[in-house]
Amino acid sequence: MKVVAVMALTPGMVLGEDISFQGKTIYPAGTELNQMMIDKISRYSIMCATVMEGVDLASTHYERIRFDEDFKLFEQKYNAALMRYKALMCSFLQTGTPIPDDMLLQIYEDTYANIRSGAVLLDYLYNKMPNEDELTFSHCLNSALLAGAIADWINMTEEDKRNLILCGFYYDIGKLMLPYELLWKSEKLTPEEYKQIQTHPVVGYSLIRALPLDNHVKNAVIMHHERLDGSGYPYHMKGQKIDVFARYIAIVDAYIAMASSRSYRMAFTPLQILGNFEQDMTKFDTELLLSVMKRIADAQIGSRIQTNDGRVWEVILIHPHKLSRPVLKNDDNQLLDLCEYPELEITKMM
Fold first, then answer.
1. What angle do CA 151, 156, 160 make, to 5 degrees?
2. How far apart are the C-alpha atoms of 168 and 137, rounded to whole Å?
3. Helices (H), ranges, the chain
4. What is the distance between the alpha carbons of residues 197 and 174, in angstroms, rounded to a whole number?
5. How far from the centroid of its chain's Cα atoms is residue 158's Cα?
6. Are 220 and 194 in contact (CB under 8 A)?
């Protein structure tokens, strides 16, 4: 809120505090002013009024975060990094000239510079407006950022962290050779279109196999859609035959895909994503997945969410064996354990 001179009041401003004169309230806090009200206030011996600013009027976290200076700086750095990343990848695809690892890692460092923790990164990525024209590039940049956060969560060595970040930058490179309209089609893919999509790991590997990259990075490109139960593609590999870096990137890829909004659906909330992972545990490396899921779940404590009955709650406790069904508290200090109410679902962040 801010204090302004009465002569500076304009229609549409909202009072942050009551306007009173000689103990009598003329207009209460929350009143949206029109010209007639302003003229009335001006007739009293009142010099100043407190009015709400944009952040005071924001009703959801999505609206409030847009006034946060750290988030604004992140978006600025992110957009600049996205253009640098796109330019490097397009140049590589056109000329075949390898991209120095340090150039990609510098993009990561520059983008992550003002992010205080992995929890903050998840919040920023969830609330960032998608660039509909650069979805493939932003998907990979987001994946590289999350890969770096995961590396920190599990205390990877610096060398392994570098390689996992590079996996994020490279693993979906094969999609850059497919038509944009096919990749981001809002309707259900035909069997033929799905088969074409499934070629991107092999296409990507053919592009980078001769590059001086660590083998983990190359394996992540061709194996990131393999699943531990053999249901993945392109080779239906199982279990430990899948490179551990590819197993991590499979988790990263799935999370970023679900956390990103599309023309045909809203982004899933982190807790909805955890629920989806819980239904598909056999497809991923369970030990790796649980270590990541617990970090994501812990980051939700204190967040405000809405359930499908329209009520708004704060997340106060995570169940260790059902991460997607936390204990909630509302503004009246009533508690709700989602594990006891299977009919209730989290629908959005507030």
1. 90
2. 11
3. 35-42, 54-57, 61-64, 69-95, 101-112, 118-127, 135-153, 158-170, 180-183, 191-197, 200-208, 215-223, 244-259, 270-279, 286-298
4. 9
5. 24
6. no
Joined tokens for residue 216: 């983990």
- pLDDT tens per residue, range 39-86: 999 898 888 989 888 777 777 777 888 888 999 999 999 999 999 999
* H or E segment to which residue 27 belongs: strand 24-27
Phi-psi region at 47: left, alpha or beta (left = phi > 0; alpha = psi -120 to 50): alpha
> Rounded to an integer, what distance in angstroms lies between the CA atom of residue 175 and that of residue 137?
10
Q: Which residues pair with 107 in a beta bridge?
A: none
The answer to whether 61 and 350 are in contact (CB under 8 A) is yes
How many residues would you count in the chain?
Answer: 350
CA distance 205 to 222: 6
**Residue corresponding to tokens 């809120």:** 1
Tracing tokens 């989602």 back to the chain, one arrives at: 338
HEC profile of 170-191 = HCCHHHHHCCHHHHCCCCCCCH
- Contact residues for 7 (Cβ-Cβ < 8 A; gap 6+): 42
Nearest CA-CA partner of 224 in 84, 232, 330, 264: 232
Return the structure tokens found at 105: 């890692």
Q: Residues 234-290: pLDDT tens digits?
A: 999 999 999 999 999 999 999 999 998 776 678 899 999 999 999 999 999 999 999
Instruction: Compute CA distances 92 → 52, 139, 156, 176, whole Å.
Output: 50, 18, 29, 11
